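Why should sequence recovery work at all? Because a backbone constrains its sequence more than one might expect. Tight turns favour small or flexible residues, buried strands favour hydrophobic ones, and helices have their own preferences. The token representation captures these environments compactly. In the example below, the structure is given first.
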């Protein structure tokens, strides 16, 4: 923002407030480090404090409703320390709505308190709230989900509305927070478990909720009118979205119901991750931030326009101290008040490195197991210098935060912005190194040819804990839709096989596995690649697909059980990945590796993993001549033995994964021995198929 200053006979000059805001002098005089911004409620009084250093006057306006009507009273606030304005109002104000009227440079605007913890319908007024009164019964016993390492997490991304809105969900509170409080919900037609109980059955450790803070795009006054939005258009950061509540007109209902949702999810041993969008706001010049302190909260270009690295009209200036403080205060508030277990940061590249490190530092004080990850890129050019951006190439400077790995995403299925582009599993075998890049968790590894990786020509992660591997998220086509678009003419059975193979790669890779809800039963959005505001017939989960593709679901369930049972798939350090995981030399359409000598942490001493993306069975020479128990093949996955073979050669069937372990040195006693044991002579392999899986087309019988 800039102002024109003029004086007769001396001409005019433009004075940019951005230049003033960026000075040490401004920070020294106006950085407020107190913890009492917003409305601090007590039964006998409420204290209000607003940071507005450029304001000439601030008036507190109190209302008895969250929308409409005139103020019941107004109070002149007093300018006080470090650019803050303060007043206190006697009496019990619980449930009273309020706004601030701010005059800056002769212009007066009414704005919502950025620190408001409760809001009225459509978020146009803040509300004073007794937070203790919003706690559901037993809330004090709800804790955080503990992780020894971020790599122990298995994340399942869900949208509150599309999880329950379809009749097949069998959920009563459709499209609401309370839909996640319903246990043992089933599809009325097939009887498969849905909603929260589905996630429990699958075995995921965390539910990632798409934005559920108060956002701008859905009209909360008409909750019965079908409306859909992902929620990436923030309005009030510290209050839950009203359209997911049973009563959006009552500011404390959404708080109570959000907590009930969190409590129910955690009762199943599952953590809650919030998708947060601090990189931009829905509104720009007319946003509450800008009404209160014009030009401070946003990055402004040299021409006076809003910097637009978000491609949504603006971007928050996280590097400014009071913006940074707001973001840190906000996530800490959610973590403490709502007992959130993790945060996913939208377009994290628009946040500066110091802010992200500050976020991690303060959240770890609340919960040492906090799960933090984000998008390591921007959506466009930003005025924030690239060396300060929390992007993939700089993520080593933010060691406690992970980023999404687009190398393995596009390596497995093909370029995300080209629906017809194939990936490794659909015949583009020159993407092999990109897939391997994800298999090692994006760390330095001697078995990777980085010159052939699709995007990152060097490792970006200092440990596998910084790498989130996935094939699909809410953005772009679902995995199933992408396979349909990029593999013309494939049969349903072939698409099922490819789905299993792609997920097997992700879930057995080092790093943190992430899944879009419904990937485990071939969810479709009917080819809509940008469904952020599409109707329910596109976004709603059809739970009958789970019944139709139950074998695909069981396969994913088995892969997750395998991962959770064996720490060899969850290695914590880059050094151990480089020394324990060893690739086997194979043709371009085949990836094979072992995880060796991990017996001090895993009861399977040597594990073999192989992925065959071709249409033919392929031989793999093994590093050990021993007895191998196969636990994953093209049809089934888990920890129980499907077949046993003897020797140093295995045949990986076409378009399938194989996971096996050295049974002779393993301490495992939980798996069931396969029904068939085939003896193999030197250099000759023979494996018999069980449960419908065929490991050899031809068998040669040899004597023991």
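From this structural description, the recovered sequence reads:
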């Amino acid at each position: 923002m800039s102002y024109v200053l003029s004086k007769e006979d001396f001409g005019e000059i433009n004075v940019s407030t951005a230049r003033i805001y960026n000075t040490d002098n401004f920070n020294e005089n106006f950085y407020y480090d107190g913890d009492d911004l917003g409305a601090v409620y007590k039964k006998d009084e409420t204290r209000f404090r607003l940071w507005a250093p450029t304001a000439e006057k601030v008036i507190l306006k109190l209302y008895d409703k969250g929308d409409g009507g005139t103020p019941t009273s107004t109070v002149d606030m007093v300018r006080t320390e470090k650019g803050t304005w303060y007043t206190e109002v006697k009496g019990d104000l619980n449930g009273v709505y309020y706004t601030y009227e701010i005059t800056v440079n002769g212009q007066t605007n009414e704005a919502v308190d950025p620190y408001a913890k409760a809001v009225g319908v459509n978020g146009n007024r803040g509300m004073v709230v007794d937070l203790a009164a919003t706690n559901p019964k037993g809330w004090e016993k709800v804790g955080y989900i503990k992780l020894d390492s971020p790599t122990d997490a298995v994340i399942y991304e869900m949208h509150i509305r599309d999880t329950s809105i379809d009749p097949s969900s069998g959920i009563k509170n459709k499209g609401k927070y309370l839909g996640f409080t319903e246990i043992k919900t089933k599809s009325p037609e097939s009887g498969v478990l849905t909603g929260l109980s589905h996630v429990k059955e699958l075995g995921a450790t965390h539910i990632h909720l798409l934005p559920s803070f108060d956002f701008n795009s859905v009209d909360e006054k008409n909750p019965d009118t079908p409306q859909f939005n992902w929620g990436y258009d923030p309005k009030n950061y510290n209050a839950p979205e009203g359209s997911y509540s049973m009563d959006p007109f009552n500011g404390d209902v959404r708080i109570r119901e959000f907590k009930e949702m969190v409590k129910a999810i955690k009762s199943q041993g599952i953590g809650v991750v919030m998708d947060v969008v601090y990189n931009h706001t829905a509104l720009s010049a007319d946003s509450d931030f800008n009404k209160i302190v014009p030009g401070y909260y946003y990055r402004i270009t040299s021409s006076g326009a809003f910097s637009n690295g978000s491609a949504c009209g603006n971007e928050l200036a996280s590097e400014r101290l009071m913006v940074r403080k707001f973001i840190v205060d906000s996530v800490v508030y959610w973590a403490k008040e709502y007992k959130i277990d993790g945060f996913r940061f939208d377009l994290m590249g628009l946040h500066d490195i110091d802010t992200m490190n500050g976020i991690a530092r303060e959240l770890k004080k609340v919960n040492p197991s906090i799960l933090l990850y984000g998008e390591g890129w921007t959506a466009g050019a930003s005025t924030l210098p690239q060396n300060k951006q929390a992007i993939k190439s700089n993520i080593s400077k933010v060691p406690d935060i992970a980023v999404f790995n687009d190398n393995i995403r596009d390596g497995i299925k093909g370029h995300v912005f080209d629906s017809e582009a194939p990936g490794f599993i659909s015949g583009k075998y020159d993407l092999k190194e990109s897939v391997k890049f994800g298999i090692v968790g994006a760390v330095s590894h001697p078995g990777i040819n980085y010159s052939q990786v699709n995007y990152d020509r060097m490792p970006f992660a200092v440990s596998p804990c910084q790498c989130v591997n996935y094939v699909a998220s809410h953005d772009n086509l679902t995995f199933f839709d992408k396979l349909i678009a990029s593999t013309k003419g494939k049969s349903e059975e072939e698409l099922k096989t490819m789905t299993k193979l792609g997920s097997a790669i992700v879930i057995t890779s080092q790093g943190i596995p992430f899944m879009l809800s419904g990937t485990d039963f071939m969810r479709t959005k009917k080819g809509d690649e940008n469904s952020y505001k599409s109707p329910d017939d596109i976004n709603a989960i059809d739970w009958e697909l789970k019944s139709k593709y139950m074998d695909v679901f069981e396969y994913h369930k088995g892969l997750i059980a395998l991962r959770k049972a064996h720490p060899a798939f969850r290695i914590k350090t880059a050094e151990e990945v480089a020394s324990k995981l060893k690739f086997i030399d194979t043709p371009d359409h085949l990836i094979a590796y072992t995880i060796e000598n991990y017996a001090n942490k895993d009861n399977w001493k040597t594990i073999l993993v192989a992925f065959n993306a071709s249409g033919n069975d392929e031989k793999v020479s093994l590093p050990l001549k021993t007895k191998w128990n196969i636990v994953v093949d093209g049809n089934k996955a888990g920890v129980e033995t499907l077949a046993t073979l003897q020797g140093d050669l295995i045949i990986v069937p076409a378009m399938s994964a194989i996971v096996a372990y050295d049974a002779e040195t393993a301490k495992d006693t939980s798996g069931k021995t396969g029904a068939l044991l085939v003896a193999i002579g030197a250099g000759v392999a023979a494996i018999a198929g069980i449960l419908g899986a065929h490991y050899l087309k031809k068998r040669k019988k040899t004597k023991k």
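A few observations help interpret the result. Residues 2-15, 668-704 have pLDDT under 50 and may be disordered.
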